[in-house]
Specification:
The protein is an alpha+beta fold and 462 residues long. It folds into two domains: 5-302, Vaccinia Virus protein VP39 (Rossmann fold, 3-Layer(aba) Sandwich), CATH 3.40.50; 321-353 and 360-454, Nuclear Transport Factor 2, Chain: A, CATH 3.10.450.720. The protein has helices spanning 5-15, 19-25, 43-49, 77-80, 92-98, 115-123, 137-149, 162-165, 192-197, 200-220, 240-249, 326-335, 385-390, 407-413, and strands at residues 32-36, 55-56, 63-66, 84-86, 105-108, 129-133, 155-158, 173-179, 221-231, 253-256, 265-266, 283-285, 295-302, 344-347, 350-353, 366-368, 371-377, 380-383, 399-402, 418-419, 425-431, 434-442, 445-448. Strand 14 and strand 15 form a beta hairpin. The two termini are 34 Å apart. The chain binds S-adenosylmethionine.
């Protein structure tokens, strides 16, 4: 692979004796991995049934390398069922370092396509409030689809620039992840565009943008909270340099020692002028030292004594229980084995289950104010694909389990009706035990409700 000459000479200066090993890493195939979605099943249970050749990613308990030549996990029905997320292995270090706890308020500020969001969601076990934000509208849509596929029940997806969010959430979040837009030097093997766009000017532009994003993130973190900053680039200006500039402007923050894992290298204070204390506790993941494309991550702590935010935020009250729309109650009674709890919100004809402690979001661009339950249509309720993927099989009254490799499952994924039996009405369709969508039974036919945009044109892998 050919990399820009000025990039090569920068890396030679930085890495010196190690440069040759680094350069040779570009001649190797990139490492490919998936992360088991522990919102749906444990890594052990997945290993017991899955068909790929997997090896553990050392720094992520649910992460596994797969063989990119032999296996196509992105073309397996269980990918549609959200059993795993295909993610670059070094990127899995970030949510592990953020270590969010169930019940916390967590913000993922630069979130599309959703690798870290969905990882944070599973570490939170789906409990608390997870705000996933992505300013770019098309990318925000993909983020929202991934949140849906992974069955995340407690996420709000917004699409705003950080300066529109920070006045709305002063000192609100327990943890914030800033996985910053960067010059992407760690993406060269995967994404030739990142390589073609690289220039020293682009590095400078990214560094300025990162400074701005971090400034707004700082405002939204509560005293004592944790901010994790990461990039997939090697450029010191965007890593140790960005953290040093941030800490100079924000004395209420300090570097916390990142949990050391096999394969993590140290941040390099010697690569930036005027280094902030503690940079050696930040993390560098290198493609020539580990099976990963490369990442930088810093864990920062805001002092307990830092000023708290302003007034308490007004929470979204949602609908009173006795005001829930009758068609939804009828659907829940007929089709769900457990009645949904918690507050709900009607947004036009769309019904959502709100995450715990969700503040009012009026005036913000919101793609998803919680778990989408479905749509009210005249006198009936149509459950959403998001609800199907967030349910456990036992939570549906009626299910049709289609075996992997069967003609019925292939037909369902292509959007066709299939022969069905059992109770009339909504049935949760499973792919060998895992929910993949809805079907509606009438006259011995299961009408297909697998979303049009997701339908397969080929035959599913066995
Ligand atoms: C490195 S990617 C995030 C990857 C994502 N966290 C994941 O794990 O899948 C950075 C994202 O930041 C978004 N972005 C660009 N400018 C931004 C800004 N000013 N504030 C927040 N996010 C921004 C980009 O559109 C991009 O989707």
């Amino acid at each position: 692979m050919i990399v820009p000459a000025s990039f090569e000479s920068r890396m030679k200066d930085l890495l010196q004796d190690e440069y040759e090993a680094f350069r040779r890493s570009y001649e190797q195939p990139r490492a490919q991995a998936l992360r088991v979605n522990t919102l749906k099943l444990s890594a052990e249970d997945f290993l017991a049934v899955q068909p790929f050749r997997l090896e553990p990613v050392p720094w992520a308990p649910a992460g596994f390398y797969y063989d990119g030549e032999e296996d196509r996990p992105g073309r397996h029905p269980w990918h549609e069922a959200g059993l795993y997320y295909i993610q670059e292995p070094s990127a899995m270090a970030v949510a592990e370092l953020a270590a969010p706890q169930p019940g916390e308020r967590v913000l993922d500020l630069c979130a599309a396509p959703g690798g870290k969001t969905t990882h944070l969601a599973q570490l939170m076990r789906g409990e608390g409030l997870l705000v996933a934000n992505e300013p770019h509208p098309a990318r925000a849509k993909i983020l929202s689809q991934n949140v849906e596929r992974m069955g995340v029940p407690h996420a709000v997806v917004t699409s705003e620039l950080p300066d529109r969010l920070s006045p709305r959430f002063p000192a609100f979040f327990d943890r914030i992840v800033v996985d910053a837009p960067c010059s992407g030097e760690g993406m060269f093997r995967k994404d030739p565009d990142a390589c073609a766009q690289w220039s020293p000017d682009h590095v400078r532009l990214c560094a300025a943008r990162q400074e701005d994003i971090l400034r707004h993130a700082a405002l939204m973190l509560r005293p004592g909270g944790t901010l994790v900053y990461s990039t997939c680039t090697f450029a010191p200006e965007e890593n140790e340099g960005a953290i040093s500039r941030f800490l100079r402007e924000h004395p209420e923050f300090s570097v916390a020692a990142a949990q050391r894992q096999d394969g993590f290298g140290s941040g390099r204070p010697d690569w930036t002028a005027d280094p902030a204390p503690g940079l050696e506790h930040t993390v560098r993941i290198w493609p020539h030292r580990t099976r990963g494309e490369g990442h930088y991550a810093a864990v920062l702590r805001k002092a307990e004594e830092a000023p708290a935010g302003g007034a308490k935020l007004k929470l979204e009250t949602g609908l009173r229980r006795d005001k829930l729309p009758e068609p939804f109650l009828r659907f829940a009674e007929e089709s769900l084995a457990e009645q949904p709890q918690g507050r709900m919100l009607l947004f036009g004809d769309q019904l959502y289950a709100l995450p715990e402690g969700m503040p009012e979001l009026a005036g913000l661009k919101v793609l998803r104010p919680g778990l989408h339950l479905g749509t009210l249509k005249k006198n009936r309720f149509e459950p959403s694909h998001a609800l199907a993927l967030a349910l456990r099989p036992s939570q549906a009254r009626h299910a049709a389990d289609l075996p992997l490799g069967s003609a019925e499952l292939a037909a369902y994924l292509r959007g066709e009706a299939i022969a069905g039996g059992g109770a009339k009405g909504w049935q949760l369709v499973l792919a060998s035990g895992y929910p993949i969508g809805w079907g509606k039974l009438a006259d011995g036919q299961l009408k297909n409700h697998f979303p049009k945009g997701l339908r397969w044109t080929g035959v599913p892998a066995k």
